[in-house]
Amino acid sequence: DRAPTQALVAETMMAETIGSRIITGATQGAVGAVVAAALSAFTEPVVNRILVERITVRESIKRLDVEKSRKFFATTLPTNFLKFPLFEAVNCVMAAVAVPDAVKGLVTGFLFTTLTLPITNYRFCKSMELPVNGGALFKAYLPTVLRDIIYGISRNKINTALILAYPALIGDTVGRAMLLFPTVLLSCIISSPGNELRGYYLQPKEKRKGFKEFFQPKNYVRSTSAGAIIMAISLSIGCLLTTPVKLALGAIGAAIGL
Question: What are phi and psi of 100, to 5 degrees?
Fold first, then answer.
């Protein structure tokens, strides 16, 4: 009886550990979603124009409309609430599975892209003021899944390397945020070729640039740096705010008797 009891306890503890990781990851992703939504409402139209239309940063900023960006926030916030917590939760679950980092990243990237591509493309169309239809919602699946798989693999490998190099940082919230920023930043940069391919295939047919014209290094640097910095900042801030948010939600729950 002792062995089965110990096994049951071990399984229960493992389930609780995975459960707590899911909650933490989803909370971090949700907080990051709000931060990113506020940033993206103004920066995403700029970044998407640079990515797809291959114009300069200055030209894209000149076309920024504050009122349209405020309205676009109504799109970035709900879509982020779906995407960010989902990715963080899947990532946390895979972190608890005993498989190589490459496998974790592949599964995370594949699942995330397959489940959220219509949301991602809907948001893109809104940011670029393009018509939303069935074809647009499922456009550029292969380059998007390639980007997200590379991102997932890179993030797991970089995270593991940084934790091994700086183990003391994982002991507190600030340290974890310090690890998360370079992890996300580098992962976005490494996976950027997939993002560039995505941008190429998202071009409207009537305005499509040729392959050689589209893929110019200066354009690549502009779009990659902007996207990577926004993602790294938002998730790092989300990491910093996770504990206060959990405490606040716990206090609210206790106050109303949940």
Answer: -60, 155
